[in-house]
């Protein structure tokens, strides 16, 4: 009987202790962020949306190899020597990047692709509101070369290669003749 | 065990006797902490047998790891136990380092690892404790715990850039050094958080109603716990003083002064749900102790000095176990000398905990099933992998 009453007393008392705490919390400002109306600023190194500064991309495909989920697709065409340019970091750009697609639906936001990039042109930005109604809208195309120009570049690269090959055979023939 | 066909297509893993009622709890059940299905054989209000059915969250981690290079596995390891991703990373990374024979690591890296692992332990225990309150009908502690957990996630986001799946601890290094001022901010959080644990105790742990609800249900005796291989807070809740941080110190845990809290059975039976819960609360205070020491001693320097450019371990195998918030997480990796593991096995502490549920819950009430599952603090992502 004593234990029974003690239990009841304990229950009341401990509930009161808790209630005192909740009462005190009534006067503490709320920690909830009313999301669409207010946003907190994310740290600058937040890993959200991937972005590629395609002008600096040298087409080394390191990010494509590093990606564990294969969400990066890169197509390259070899540039002829007169088309070669320099990235802002001083690296030689020896390729035309005709396709640089990132499927953000597949991306696991692991940051592994940004580490090996020699020119640091692929990085994660703190922008996070990139939902899309269609799955295919989540595939981001970063390449700037228009598709109608691709056959021309291909032809150029093929011709250059042929010339090189012809030069080589000529040289070989000359060596053989000597 | 006899399988029996029910309704033409459905297999049950036992023989139905008399008026047994079979209750399917899950896979979509708010209190099972993931997609877990419990098959309860009930006799009136009493549970005669519990059979856990797992596999709803299977993602082929072990097979998938064989197709990835060693650093690429780390994002997948994160997704094993997604509420304690840092601890998972630590276990995997230490195993690969053991395989490579990488021992001479910078001091700062060792400290960063301990700091991250202990913060993750607090965050994970906060989730466990908060949701356990929710399971037993207390909503307020859950919200308070999440409020404090968010602050830890903010710290993690500041350091690594991500809030949940960090990919921060790498083989022989970290993704990036701690931001300047991290130690001060972390200390600030600890000063804020320590009184919050007392609040939690006042609000939930020593609440008579909560004690009455949990102190005598789901008893896991120490010998049963050991024979099932249960580890972590579930084992310590039964009164067994076994913590890998003390018994087999990895990283630099032997340098810190901390206690291993164990269940005492002060309000009921030893090894009951309340003891498992209370061990978690007390472990948070121990983690704070470790964190204070580690943050005080945090040395300068470059944590990535010894990071290998290419991870290519020699032929062989290695097993390493560490103390994750849920118990002993072990990784067994076989290497054939290439860049990809030949075999990568994860030993999950939640799997052993859920396998003991029949021993824990048999003879209890149906209403206690949720409270028992909640007290084990399982994460299905880790069980199914």
Key structural traits:
heterodimer, A: 178 residues, alpha+beta, 2 domains, three-stranded antiparallel beta sheet, two-stranded antiparallel sheet, 7 strands, B: 385 residues, Cytochrome-c3 Hydrogenase, chain B, 10 strands
Summarize the structure.
The complex is a heterodimer of chains A (178) and B (385). Chain A is α+β, with helices and mostly antiparallel strands. Chain A has helices spanning 2-25, 62-66, 150-177; strands spanning 49-52, 72-78, 85-86, 92-93, 95-103, 122-125, 139-141.
Give an overview of the whole structure.
- The complex is a heterodimer of chains A (178) and B (385).
- By secondary structure, chain A is an alpha+beta fold.
- Chain A has a three-stranded antiparallel beta sheet. Chain A has a two-stranded antiparallel ribbon with strand order 1-6. Chain A has a two-stranded antiparallel ribbon with strand order 3-4.
- Chain A has two domains: 30 residues; 111 residues, Alpha-Beta Plaits (2-Layer Sandwich).
- Helices cover 32% and strands 17% of the residues of chain A.
- Chain A is built from three helices and seven strands, in the order H-E-H-E-E-E-E-E-E-H.
- The model of chain A has no long low-confidence stretch (mean pLDDT 85).
- Chain A is rod-shaped, with a radius of gyration of 30 Å.
- Chain A starts with a helix and ends with a helix.
- Chain B is of the alpha+beta class.
- Chain B has a single domain, classed as Cytochrome-c3 Hydrogenase, chain B, CATH 1.10.645.10.
- Helix content of chain B is 47%, strand content 14%.
- Chain B contains 15 helices and ten strands.
- A three-stranded antiparallel beta sheet of chain B has the order 3-4-5. Chain B has a three-stranded antiparallel beta sheet with strand order 8-9-10. In chain B, strands 1-2 form a two-stranded antiparallel ribbon.
- Chain B is globular and about 65 Å long.
- The relative contact order of chain B is 0.18.
């Amino acid at each position: 009987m004593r234990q029974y009453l003690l239990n009841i007393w304990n229950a009341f008392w401990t509930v009161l202790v808790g209630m005192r705490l909740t009462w005190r919390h009534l006067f503490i400002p709320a920690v909830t962020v009313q999301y669409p109306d207010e946003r907190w600023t994310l740290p600058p190194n937040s890993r959200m949306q991937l972005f590629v500064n395609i002008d600096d991309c040298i087409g080394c495909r390191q990010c494509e190899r590093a990606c564990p989920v294969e969400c990066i697709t890169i197509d390259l065409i070899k540039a002829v020597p007169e088309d070669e340019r320099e990235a802002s970091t001083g690296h030689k750009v020896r390729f035309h990047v005709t396709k640089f697609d990132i499927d953000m639906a597949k991306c696991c936001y692991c940051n592994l692709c940004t580490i090996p990039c020699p020119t640091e042109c692929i990085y994660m930005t703190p922008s996070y509101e990139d939902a899309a109604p269609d799955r295919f809208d989540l595939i981001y195309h970063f390449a700037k070369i228009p598709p109608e120009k691709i056959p021309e570049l291909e032809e150029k690269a093929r011709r250059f290669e042929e010339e090189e090959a012809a030069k080589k055979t000529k040289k070989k023939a000359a060596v053989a003749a000597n | 065990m006899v399988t029996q066909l029910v309704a033409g297509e459905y297999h049950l893993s036992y023989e139905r006797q008399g008026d047994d009622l079979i209750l399917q709890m899950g896979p979509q059940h708010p209190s099972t902490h993931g997609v877990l299905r419990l098959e309860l054989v009930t006799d009136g209000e009493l549970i005669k047998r519990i059979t856990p059915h797992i596999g709803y969250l299977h993602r082929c981690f072990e097979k998938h790891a064989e197709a990835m290079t060693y650093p690429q596995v780390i994002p997948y390891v994160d997704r094993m136990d997604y509420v304690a991703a840092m601890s998972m990373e630590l276990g995997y990374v230490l195993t690969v380092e053991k395989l490579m024979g990488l021992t001479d690591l910078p001091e700062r890296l060792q400290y960063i690892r301990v700091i991250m692992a202990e913060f993750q332990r607090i965050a994970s225990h906060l989730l466990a404790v908060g949701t356990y309150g929710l399971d037993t009908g207390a909503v307020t502690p859950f919200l308070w715990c999440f409020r404090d957990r968010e602050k830890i996630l903010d710290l993690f986001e500041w350091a690594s850039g991500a809030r949940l799946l960090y990919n921060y601890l790498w083989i022989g290094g970290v993704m990036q050094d701690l931001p300047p001022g991290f130690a001060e901010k972390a200390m600030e959080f600890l000063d804020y958080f320590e009184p919050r644990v007392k609040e939690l105790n006042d609000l939930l742990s020593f609440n008579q109603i909560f004690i009455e609800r949990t102190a005598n249900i789901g008893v896991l005796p120490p010998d049963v716990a050991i024979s099932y291989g249960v580890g972590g807070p579930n084992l310590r809740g039964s009164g067994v003083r076994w913590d890998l941080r003390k018994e087999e110190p990895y990283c630099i845990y032997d340098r810190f002064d901390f206690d291993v809290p164990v269940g005492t059975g002060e309000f009921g039976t030893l090894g009951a749900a309340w003891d498992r819960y209370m061990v978690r609360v007390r472990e948070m205070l121990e983690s704070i102790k470790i964190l204070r020491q580690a943050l005080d001693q945090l040395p300068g320097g470059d944590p990535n000095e010894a990071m290998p450019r290419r991870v290519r371990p020699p032929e062989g195998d290695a097993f390493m176990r560490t103390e994750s918030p849920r118990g002993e997480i072990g990784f067994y990796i076989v290497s054939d000398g290439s860049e990809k593991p030949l075999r990568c096995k994860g030993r999950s502490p939640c799997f052993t905990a859920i396998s003991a549920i029949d021993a824990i819950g048999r003879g209890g009430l149906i209403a206690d099933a949720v409270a028992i599952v909640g007290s084990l603090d399982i994460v299905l992502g880790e069980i199914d992998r």
